[in-house]
Amino acid sequence: MSFQTGHVGLNVTDLDKSKEFYTRVFGFTVAGESQEDGRRYAFLAQDGTLVLTLWQQSAGRFEAARPGLHHLSFQVADLDAVRRAETVIREIGATLYHDGVVPHREGASSGGVFFADPDGIRLEIFAPDGAGDRPAPNSDTPTCGFF
């Protein structure tokens, strides 16, 4: 038996705000949605493949101290794609951790940007190469582990 991630579902507090965020930052398209009161959701796709579902059924903010999702990571082809995403993240005023592109750990060539969505859900966009010339925020722990 072999497993791979199909899509990720996230609970959000404001579907419209979250749809705008994810379509703008990631370039996802809305593949389907419901505006039915009490049952609002959106299916977000990339190149016709479902990637993310947003479910408007929560209140409050993401809490890192509670069991569950730690962060959601997306890989892109290269550091230029990471920088393009960082530009959008800064333009929309999303919370950006580590003040920009950083390696995954000291001496690693992979790295990216770490940020939060409108509900505080922690996100990462990274490239496998190109970040090695920057210092890591923490020299002894993985960057994606503590932000």
Automatic annotation (TrEMBL):
UniProt cross-references to InterPro entries, sorted A to Z: Fosfomycin_Res_Enzymes, Glyas_Bleomycin-R_OHBP_Dase, Glyas_Fos-R_dOase_dom, Glyoxalase_1_CS, VOC_core
VOC domain boundaries: 4-128
Single GO MF annotation: metal ion binding
Protein name per Swiss-Prot or TrEMBL: Catechol 2,3-dioxygenase-like lactoylglutathione lyase family enzyme
Keyword Oxidoreductase: yes
Source superkingdom: Bacteria
Signal peptide boundaries: none
Region Disordered: start-end pairs: 128-147
PANTHER family cross-referenced by the UniProt entry: GLYOXALASE_BLEOMYCIN RESISTANCE PROTEIN_DIOXYGENASE, LYASE, PUTATIVE-RELATED-RELATED
Species the sequence originates in: Nonomuraea jabiensis
Polar residues composition-biased segments: 138-147
Record keywords, A-Z: Dioxygenase, Lyase, Metal-binding, Oxidoreductase
One family name in Pfam for this protein: Glyoxalase
